[in-house]
Amino acid sequence: MTLAVDAIDRFRTAFEGELIDRDHADYDAARRLWNARFDRRPAVIARPASTDDVRATLRFAREQGLPIAVRCGGHSNTGWSGVDDGVVIDLRNLAAITIDPERRRARVGGGALLKQLDVAAQAHGLVCPVGVVGHTGVGGLTLGGGMGRLMRNYGLTIDHLRSVELVTADGRLVTASTEEEPDLFWAIRGAGTNFGIVTTFEFELSPFGGVLHRGNRIYPGTRVHEVWDAFRAYADDAPDAVAPILGLGRAEPGAGYPDAVTGQVIVVIGFNHSGEASRVAADIEALDRDLQPVARTDASAPYLEVQVSGDDAHGWGGRSAISGGMANEVRPAALDALVAHSAAAPAGIEASFGVTLLGGAIARVPEGTTSFGPRGGRFDVSSQAGWTDPALDAAADRWVEDAMAIVGPDLIPGRYVNEISQDEPGMPRSIYADRYDRLAALKRTWDPDNVFHGNQNIEPAAD
After folding, report:
1. d(CA 406, CA 347)
2. Cβ count near 180 (within 10 Å)
3. Contacts of 111 (CB under 8 A, 6+ apart)
């Protein structure tokens, strides 16, 4: 559908923010997305200056019959932060953060980035557990659940969410919390992009000293069974302060790996310890017991530095694919197949497979409290690829999908929506599993016309 120039002009008179159409000098920069695979060309990009602007933009898009995309950090793995021939509601100018240190609360605008929230909270010795790349948007991360370096000790981002203000499909501004619209608040915490445009988040913060203790252990891929057995045994009693991950990938030349493993598949155990320095050695002793790595590192660093340490590696302009699920075990045969699959990753693609320990504070939230789940899953498993050459798109997708197929028999129902880049029929039901039908019924209540469909879409239940 073509948007008439006079329609934009009429809208401009009632809009206080910035409107960027295709003739604007900043159009190409404004429409750019983090994942370079997606080259969306919206009819107009609206940067609201207020919640009223958000409501007006939504009303305008609906009157014109145009699809919408909601953008915070622009990090959607599937390019849903942009839309062809529609309206992008870019929240970047609604990014104010207010910290109440006495109440340990943060009021965060819908356009804020993780690094902004981290810095604001740490100025008062407080923290909200968030993701691992500083230029990610608070909105997208939170509405999908929010995994990160602190999650076993402090929980998911949604576990600190106390309320939201959101613009619903019919243009209302609604507050949702456990006291107000509790069913909507349940849905927001895990499937939130389906239910509205969140303009304000309120988080409860926790005291945190601001230092992470970290380490890596590198082993040849030929030792995968030995290393996995140790990792799995450690998982049974791991202290909450320790967030460990086991990764598989190829040690590429020039990346600083020891000569003994360069060019080969390696197994890496990494960890972040968010507790007291005096506890680190004792808390990871069982993880190191009887395993002799070819290389190891141990260090402590300011949390704020660690939180942006991957920003360049995950910077704008690259191409990305990811897929994940949850499992309680990984079969020995799957480990062997993953080593072989990692060895066969096409040149030009940085491919890896990870097993992240869950549990801790995540599992202490009762099952069904939020639309994110399952809470009792032991591990998050994920495959991901990064590359720059568009000619490798199909090969990278295939590598990611084949890696997940290897562990398919180990998966339990439910997935983390923020680590899914596949847009295909049936995926939303796979993600939300036994929560899907309740979400579809709520979708019918709050968005019966499926206005918010640029996501892992939950279609409104039939009447």
Report:
1. 21
2. 11
3. 72, 90, 91, 92, 93, 94, 95, 137, 139
Instruction: Please name the helix (run of DSSP H) or strand (run of DSSP E) that holds residue 201, with its range, or none.
Output: strand 197-204
Q: Return phi, psi of residue 197, to 5°.
A: -110, 110
Query: How is 371-413 classified by DSSP, letter by letter?
Result: SS--SS-SEEEEEEEEES-GGGHHHHHHHHHHHHHHTGGGEES
> Nearest 5°: phi and psi at 260?
-60, -25
Q: What is the pTM of this model?
A: 0.96
Q: Which two tokens stand for residue 349?
A: 């693609």
- CA trace torsion 378, 221, 390, 426 (10° rounding): -30
3-state secondary structure at position 4: coil
Beta carbons of 354 and 247 less than 8 angstroms apart: yes
Instruction: Give the sheet arrangement for strand 411-412, strand by strand.
Output: 295-302, 211-220, 265-273, 242-250, 350-357, 379-387, 319-327, 411-412
Tally Cβ neighbours within 10 Å of residue 285: 10
pLDDT digits (tens, 9 = 90+) for 427-456: 999 999 999 999 999 999 999 999 999 999
Write the pLDDT tens digit of every residue in 65-105. Answer: 999 999 999 999 999 999 999 999 999 999 999 999 999 99
What would the two tokens of residue 416 be?
């983390």
Q: Give the torsion through C-alpha atoms of 393, 399, 401, 403, to 10 deg.
A: -160
The DSSP H or E segment spanning 213 is strand 211-220
* Tokens, residue 93: 């100018």
On whether the CB atoms of residues 19 and 11 are closer than 8 A, the answer is yes
Cα separation, 297 vs 299, in Å, equals: 7
48: Cβ contacts below 8 Å, ≥ 6 apart? 15, 16, 17, 54, 56, 57, 89, 90, 91, 93, 94
